[in-house]
C-alpha cells in the first residue's frame, strides 16, 4: 500500500511554461544558421556514442559468434553479389585491420595495437579493391567521454580532424555554452532514455530531419525580465527574446533554471523551466485501477469511463484535401511550401489539443485518487506492422491485414496513451502522498475479477466478458480494470 505523509511543508516542484516568442529578422536568420551549424556536431557526438555501444557489444561472445557463422555470411554474400556498384567479397574479423591511406602513421600504429576485435569487409567498387571498416571512430579512446565533455570545445574540434573546414568554421561561430547545453540536454538526455529502453533508436540529423531547438541549462547566464517580457537565453550574440503571456500564467519574480527556443509549424516558442514551491494536494484513501483502450480512453475500476476525443479524426477530412492538393503541386514551389505549412499547422494544432486534454485527465486523476494502478501496455509492440508472408507458389504475398493494422496503429497514435501515462507518472511522483504503479497486462482481460478463473473463452467478444465458472457478466474493460487494481494492491483472487 501507499504511505500517507505530512502535507504541512512546502514542496519544491518544477514546472515548464511554453510562451510564444517573437524574433526579429536578424534573430531568425541567426537561429537558422546556428541550428544548421549544430547538425554535424550532433552527428559527430551520436557517432561517438554508437562507437562506445559497439565496443561493449563486441565483448559479448554471442555477438561475435553471429558474425563468425560462415553460413550466414555466405547467405548474405549470395544475396547481394549481383549488385554492380559495390558488394563485399571477403569478410575479416581481426585484431588489427590493414593500414588505411587516410590515416597517419601514428594512427595506423595505434590501430594495430587495438585489442578490440574489429569487423571489416573487402569491397570492390569503381575505384578498386580496399578494406572498409564498419566502425568509423575505432581509433579514439573513450568515445563516450568525448561525446559528453569534449566534443563541443573549440580545442578538441580543431585538433580532432573529424569535421570539414567548412562545417568547423560555421560551428566555431556558435556560442560554446549553447553548444554545451545542446549536447547535454538534447542528445545526452535522449541517449539515456534510449539506453533504458524508453525511447526509440536515435537517428542522425539531416535536411529532412533538422535541428529545431537551441537551449541553455546554465541558470546564471539567463537574464530574465518578466516585467519587460524579454529574456536573454542564448547569449549576447542572439540578443533579447521577446515573449508574451507570462503574467497570465505565473506571477512573481522567478529565475528560470534552464530554457530552450524551439521552432514549430506556426512560429517560435520559448520553453522555460521554473522551480516553485507549492502546498501538497490533500490526502486521499481512494485507489483505482486503470485499463487504457481505444473505444474509451481510460476505464476505471470504480465504473467510470473517460472518453477518447479522437482529435486526428476530426481533422481527417481537411488533411485529406490538403494532402491531395500537395501531391498535385510541384515540389519546392511557393504554393507547395504554403500547402506544406498549412498541413504542419493542422498537425500541430491536433497535437496541442491532445496534449491539453491528457494534461486535464491526468491532473484530475492524481488529485482524486491516492493510489493509481495502470496497465503496463507495450505500445511499441502493439504498433508493429504484420510480417509479410510469401505465397506457396512464390508469386506475390498473402493478405496479412496490413491495411487494417495501419488504421489501428493510427488510432493508437491519435489516443496518445503513452503521453497520458507519462503525465500520470510524472505528476503522481511529484507528490509524496500519491502512489502510481504499473501492472503487467498478462491475462487481465481473460481473468474473472470475482472468482479468479482464467480462460480465453471468457472473453467472447471485444466488448463483453462472461465467466464460464461463476457466470459473471460485465464490460470487458471494466473487468480488466478491476483485475489491475486487485493485482497492484494485494487483492488478487487467484
From TrEMBL:
- Boundaries of each Probable transposase IS891/IS1136/IS1341 domain copy? 277-384
Q: Which UniProt keywords apply?
A: DNA recombination, DNA-binding, Transposition
Q: Output the Pfam families linked to this UniProt entry.
A: Cas12f1-like_TNB (PF07282), OrfB_IS605 (PF01385)
Question: Does DNA-binding show up as a keyword for this record?
Answer: yes
For the Cas12f1-like TNB domain, which residue ranges apply? 418-484
Q: Which residues form a coiled coil?
A: none
Question: Which GO biological-process labels does this protein carry?
Answer: DNA recombination; transposition
MF term (GO), any: DNA binding
Q: Name the protein family.
A: In the C-terminal section; belongs to the transposase 35 family.
Q: What is this protein's record name?
A: Transposase IS605 OrfB
Query: Which organism encodes this protein?
Result: Rippkaea orientalis (strain PCC 8801 / RF-1)
Give the organism's phylogenetic lineage.
Bacteria, Bacillati, Cyanobacteriota, Cyanophyceae, Oscillatoriophycideae
